[in-house]
Amino acid sequence: MTEGDEMLRAPVSGQRLDILEWLRDPVAHFPVQRHGDLVEDGVSPEALAAKLGVSRAVARTHLDLLTGVGLLRAKRVRRRTFYSRDEYRIAEVGLFFEKGW
């Protein structure tokens, strides 16, 4: 199974689309974090869970799926993981859809 197949099989979720939109400009959507810079390092699962109004486990499920298909990057800072958009991959996926994938 290719990455594209995996992406197409993933159920569409408004929450996942919200995550991608919020991470486009994390400073506008999330408070300053104690550890990790919002722009340089990304956003913590805890901050995303709070914004979504879900448990950390549910937020991690969304983040793992988005990371697995390459739309997000995970970065470890100390013992924490932060998430940010992979703009190159998002643009690449956009081109597939423009071409009628």
TrEMBL record:
Stored Gene3D superfamilies: Winged helix-like DNA-binding domain superfamily/Winged helix DNA-binding domain
Superkingdom of origin: Bacteria
Protein name per Swiss-Prot or TrEMBL: Helix-turn-helix domain-containing protein
Species per Swiss-Prot/TrEMBL record: Streptomyces siamensis
